[in-house]
């Protein structure tokens, strides 16, 4: 078992163990070198001395860290214990050493560096010996065991200059020096003001409370500052709750920062540049430089040829070309061009001649078997004309190329190609690569344009003839219809129940409710008459009484007013009065249409056969009739009042004219482009209108845009009979003789720069059966709901919701 030399540990009482490292260090540093040499000589003389009951812990942390302590080399320098160095040391000397160790305990264990503790110890000794000491005395007192002098460069360790390290004493009675340290605050990086109201400042590693150190008031701080001349070197640690004295290294860092220098003194910002890619050209054995001329070896063969040419020139057999040599003129000339032939610049539209197609496999003298035609294909090719043949040859197979005969059509094909090149004109056409789908306007989905009617909700049955006209009252509760069975029926919209039936003498061509909710009146046209009906037992008694007085007031005023021979106002018979008819207006020709003014006092009638008096405007309160036009242009088909302005629209067979009733002048004439107008309706805003025609077209006009149609829609297969706008929703509809009803979304924007949006959203197919080439005859929108009501030649009325 190898012997282990004891380490440098001194036996000391337990009371002084806390300050042992600093005191031992100081003692070692202050002893003269002669004592150290004496101890080494004594140790050489007595290597087998025993140390008594000294307990040495071989597993201490300091010994594990420093492997040099257990070195078996006997030549290493070892500091002896105080007991061995001098046997004449008394107990008083040991007590003095212990006192010095206790004095240096505070500053060293409080977190100061060893250098600072040495400065303080040296300062105390200097005060006792009256020797001045300044900051520069640190050069001689720094312990070589723990660092080097800051003002001198650190020596470099090598094989020729070994550095001998000396380590501090370790107390054998303790497991490690860490046992002498105070409890540290391990609360972590948290705001320390959380502990302001508690007596402790944190917790140690075992979870026990670390009590706050005693702190004085401001006066105590001032007195301690005055007593301690080195107080300016300290800083307060809020985590530990005490002042910490700065080391020399930390003070040096502060000085360098204040001087705007780099904190690290060992860092050199002006080091030499390291060239990763050197600028020196390396000498390589290979080179890509061109060969020098000195390595050229002339060819003897070329030398003979050159000498032969030189002898021919000398003999005159070869005449060198002179500088002013002119090439001889050609022997052939262009007979058709007097001017000199010069290259002509290509025209902008010039197109080069197309190249002939390359031969394919079937043109080979030995084509594959799949290219050879069958007998049927050969017969079919022979029967075809030359112009219709896809190819002017038939593939044939030969065993060898020498067996292929001459091609008889060679001259003919080349001649035809020359004709194509010189006689056929070639024109450059710029092709536009346009996606056809991009030309289709992007329309929104019909699901995003709801609500609109999609299904049948109510069906009204009871008429025995064609239902030519329907109308809904302003409240939306009652529906009136006129039929060829000479009856006018009033229906309940929600249930489809017939509330009242009026029997007349002629076919009913038009029924329209009055626009005012204060007067319940229904205008009906039958033959040469226009009747005003007051439905009884339907409306409230107050509304019925007010409407009765409103209709009777006109007869009192008609006695004083002038009588127009074109129209006669008459009272009904007692039997007609019992039915509900209150006023009759007799005209000279059959009436086809009646329409109301927005205020409910005026209504207009259309009698197409009356020529100049085809359009008449009647005033209900005064029983007066006016003829707005002395002469009409064409046969009038439909008329409409503007919903907000004093405008009047008159539709003839091919034109729609807009008149100003106040100024009595023509405002605009719309060019429809259709053959025969059948129906007309004006948008509730008054800036757009639609017309339907017997030639299956529906035209949308933007009155502010142009006199021509903004959109022309042709979705029906037969003649359009009626068109109608909804008064609240952006919807309009049309019906035709094909029995279908087309529903469109027509959004009109307030922005004049944005065009109306027209989208077809629904087709109600086979709504009415076709009877005698007639289908759906009239459509009408509910005034408040997105419901559509249609009537047809099959004697039915249907409501779609």
UniProtKB/TrEMBL annotation:
Biased composition (Low complexity): 9-29
Region (Disordered): 1-184
Domain BOP1 N-terminal: from-to ranges: 195-453
Coiled-coil stretches: none
Family recorded in the similarity comment: Belongs to the WD repeat BOP1/ERB1 family.
Record's subunit section: Component of the NOP7 complex, composed of ERB1, NOP7 and YTM1. Within the NOP7 complex ERB1 appears to interact directly with NOP7 and YTM1. The NOP7 complex also associates with the 66S pre-ribosome.
Descriptive protein name: Ribosome biogenesis protein ERB1
Gene coding for it: ERB1
């Amino acid at each position: 078992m190898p012997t282990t030399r004891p380490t440098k540990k001194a036996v000391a009482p337990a009371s002084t163990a806390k300050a042992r490292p600093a005191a031992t260090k100081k003692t070692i540093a202050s002893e003269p070198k002669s004592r150290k040499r004496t101890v080494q000589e004594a140790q050489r003389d007595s290597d087998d001395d025993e140390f008594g009951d000294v307990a040495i812990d071989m597993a201490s942390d300091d010994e594990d860290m420093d492997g040099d302590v257990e070195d078996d080399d006997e030549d290493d320098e070892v500091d002896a214990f105080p007991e061995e160095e001098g046997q004449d040391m008394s107990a008083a000397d040991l007590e003095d050493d212990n006192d010095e160790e206790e004095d240096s305990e505070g500053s060293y264990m409080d977190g100061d560096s060893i250098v600072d503790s040495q400065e303080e110890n040296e300062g105390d000794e200097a005060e006792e010996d009256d020797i001045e000491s300044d900051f520069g005395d640190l050069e001689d007192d720094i312990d070589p065991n723990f660092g080097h002098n800051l003002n001198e460069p650190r020596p470099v360790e090598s094989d020729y200059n070994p550095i001998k390290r000396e380590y501090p004493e370790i107390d054998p009675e303790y497991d490690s020096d860490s046992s002498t340290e105070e409890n540290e605050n391990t609360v972590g990086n948290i705001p320390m003001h959380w502990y302001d109201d508690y007596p402790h400042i944190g917790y140690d590693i075992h979870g026990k409370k670390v009590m706050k150190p005693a702190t004085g008031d401001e006066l105590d701080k001032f007195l301690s500052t005055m007593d301690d001349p080195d107080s300016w070197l300290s800083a307060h640690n809020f985590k530990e709750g005490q002042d910490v004295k700065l080391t020399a290294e930390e003070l040096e860092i502060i000085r360098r920062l204040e001087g705007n220098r780099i904190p690290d003194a060992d860092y050199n910002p002006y080091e030499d540049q390291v060239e990763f890619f050197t600028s020196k050209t390396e000498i390589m054995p290979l080179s890509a430089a061109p060969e020098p001329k000195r390595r050229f070896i002339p060819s003897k063969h070329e030398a003979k040829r050159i000498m032969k040419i030189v002898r021919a020139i000398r003999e005159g057999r070869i005449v060198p070309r002179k500088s002013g040599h002119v090439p001889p003129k050609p022997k052939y000339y262009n007979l058709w061009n007097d001017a000199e032939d010069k290259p002509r610049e290509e025209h902008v539209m010039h197109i080069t001649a197309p190249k002939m197609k390359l031969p394919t496999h079937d043109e080979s003298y030995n084509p594959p078997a799949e290219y050879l035609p069958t007998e049927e294909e050969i017969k079919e090719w022979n029967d075809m004309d030359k112009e219709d043949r896809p190819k002017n040859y038939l593939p044939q197979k030969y065993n060898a190329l020498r067996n292929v005969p001459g091609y008889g059509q060679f001259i003919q094909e080349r001649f035809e190609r020359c004709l194509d090149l010189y006689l056929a004109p070639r024109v450059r056409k710029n092709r536009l690569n346009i996606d056809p789908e991009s030309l289709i306007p992007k329309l929104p989905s019909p699901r995003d344009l709801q609500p609109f009617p999609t299904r049948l909700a109510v069906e009204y049955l009871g008429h025995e003839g064609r239902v030519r006209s329907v109308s809904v009252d302003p409240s939306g509760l009652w529906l009136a219809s006129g039929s060829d069975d000479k009856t006018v029926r009033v229906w309940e919209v929600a249930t489809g129940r017939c509330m009242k039936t009026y029997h007349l003498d002629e076919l009913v061509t038009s029924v329209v409710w009055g626009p005012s909710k204060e007067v319940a009146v229904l205008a009906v046209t039958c033959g040469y008459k226009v009747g005003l009906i007051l439905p009884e037992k339907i409306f409230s008694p107050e509304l019925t009484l007010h409407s009765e007085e409103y209709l009777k007031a006109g007869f009192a005023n008609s006695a004083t007013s002038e009588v127009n021979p074109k129209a006669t106002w008459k009272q009904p018979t007692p039997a007609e009065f019992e039915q509900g008819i209150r006023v009759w207006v007799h005209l000279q020709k059959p009436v086809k249409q009646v329409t109301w003014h927005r205020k409910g006092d005026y209504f207009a009638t259309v009698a197409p056969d009356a020529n100049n008096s085809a359009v008449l405007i009647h005033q209900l309160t005064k029983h007066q009739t006016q003829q707005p036009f002395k002469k009409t242009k064409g046969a009038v088909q439909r008329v409409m009042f503007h919903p907000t302005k004093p405008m009047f629209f008159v539709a003839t067979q091919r034109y729609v004219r807009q008149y100003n009733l106040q100024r009595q002048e023509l405002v605009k004439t719309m060019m429809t482009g259709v053959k025969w107008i059948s129906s007309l309706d004006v948008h509730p805003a008054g800036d757009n209108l639609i017309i339907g025609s017997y030639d299956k077209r529906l035209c949308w006009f933007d009155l502010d845009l142009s006199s021509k149609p903004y959109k022309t829609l042709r979705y029906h297969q037969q003649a359009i009979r009626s068109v109608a706008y909804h008064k609240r929703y952006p919807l309009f509809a049309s019906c035709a003789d094909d029995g279908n009803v087309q529903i469109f979304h027509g959004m009109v924007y307030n922005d004049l720069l944005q065009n109306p949006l027209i989208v077809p959203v629904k087709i109600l197919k086979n709504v009415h059966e076709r009877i005698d080439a007639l289908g759906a005859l009239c459509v009408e929108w509910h005034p408040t709901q997105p419901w559509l009501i249609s009537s047809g030649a099959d004697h039915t009325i249907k409501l779609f919701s």
